[in-house]
Amino acid sequence: MLSKKTKYAFHALTYLAENQEKGAVLIQEIASSKNISHKFLENILLELKKAGILGSKKGKGGGYYLIKKPEEITLAKIIRLLNGPIAWLPCVSLNYYEKCADCVDEATCNMHLIMCQVRDQTLAVVENKTLSDLISKTTDKQYLKY
Amino acid sequence: MLSKKTKYAFHALTYLAENQEKGAVLIQEIASSKNISHKFLENILLELKKAGILGSKKGKGGGYYLIKKPEEITLAKIIRLLNGPIAWLPCVSLNYYEKCADCVDEATCNMHLIMCQVRDQTLAVVENKTLSDLISKTTDKQYLKY
DNA sequence: CATAAAACCTACAAACTAAGTAGGGTATGC
DNA sequence: GCATACCCTACTTAGTTTGTAGGTTTTATG
User: Fold this and answer.
1) Domain hosting residue A92, numbered range
2) Other C-beta atoms within 10 Å of B144: how many?
3) For the domain that residue B41 is a member of, what is the CATH number?
4) What is the rounded distance in angstroms from the CA atom of residue B80 to the CA atom of residue A128?
5) Distance A124 CA to D16 C1' (A)
6) Each residue's pLDDT tens digit, B61-102
């Protein structure tokens, strides 16, 4: 299951994507809008910044903002960053590979093969879905254009 | 990631499947063969028994044995039993459904839809793979038939 | 029937991870 | 130069996973 941290990250990113015209947005604004603890969200946004997904501005009028287009931010990237490996076993993880303690030979391990399939099927979805797929298409703002 | 409990369960089931001709097998035999703590494995086998996958015999000459054909035991069943939900969110779980705390409307939630896809892709693998796919096809025993 | 073997069951302990909190440091705008 | 708001480190709390302890019940066998 996805951790709260991961879910909070998606909520925050969605908020930022839907409010890009505002420029820098306060942590507090996101936190109260999405019902997330201010300090906990602070840590999450910092991680997203260090990963090159968000930019920030300090001092009065500061806040966080997207530095990539929503369609360039894959769900896989966010999940890996905040939730950890997508694979079910360390020995089939593309980004967090580790040799299995008990497994003698990966090449002949039947489990290994199947877990690769699971990983690839999952990636087929989350590598091809982006933040833009999470944005609600019918916000008030969009209607105002007409 | 799969828990140790889940991995141990697969190891134990594989052992039992590869040694069906032995009849009842001692916990201790499986534990030492697969390097699992006896008492921990005891709990796992008990769960598998309660789920109707294993049978047991008490007393001298007792032990555990499969009561289903390996090809009838899907990986999904084992994973759900010992690892919990396969889905990434409670609101898309088929066997452990729970309403999302924060989600207002599942029908219009974009996350919901994507997570359903992830779940279905995963299930496409693990509902169609069974214990028989984990059994090594080249054991000594098999060669002895010729 | 006595004994030993082996599963059954409940409860607990230790280790690890996730979630959240505290408090001060640093850059920025006015 | 002061208020603002992000930055950073460390800590606490809560929950889960992993493993252990110790006794109970059932069964084969001499």
Assistant:
1) 74-126
2) 7
3) 1.10.10.10
4) 27
5) 30
6) 999 999 999 999 999 999 999 999 999 999 999 999 998 877
